[in-house]
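Structure representation:
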Amino acid sequence: MNQPNSQPTSELMLRETASQTAGPYVHIGLALAAAGNPVRDEEIWNEMAKPDAEGEHIEVVGTVIDGNGDLVRDAFVEAWQADANGHYQADYDLSKPFNSFGRTATTFDHGSEWSLTTIKPGAVKHPSGQLMAPHINLTLFARGVNIHLQTRLYFDDEAEANAHCPVLTRIESPARRQTLIAKREEVDGKVRYRLDIRLQGEGETLFFDF
């Protein structure tokens, strides 16, 4: 009779592990303010661009809505984007004016909105050689979501670039394409873009399988 763990290590390493929902616990470790806990001195959070960062400074906001049309008040969102020149900043450093990576979360306060303070990204080259329209990559974690969801945010005032983006144009349905387009607003003289993420049902956001 084989003893536990008597199989070759190579076989054990190839086994697929079970998916696990993020649950509410992700906020305790990664979204301390949203969980009502004291924040750390150095925190990866939603200020991706400081006032001296190069580029057009914007705010991005939104909600997360479930299949019943209700707000998901404890979702966690990660963002990854290029800088104003279309380059990703791979080295994260809180002292830098801009970082390509950020985190945010919906909460039980302030309309359950997630938000990012950043700059409008420049166009990034696709492997085909074409330029992709300016966009922000978003990854969403939430209770009941066993495998994180990946989507993109594009800008409604980049119509020309959107019309020729090699990724957006692969989406055959114009209605589905629109679920990725953030709407420009101006609030107190500041530029803001809004994108509400719908997990299921009518107007469901288009998610990517990378």
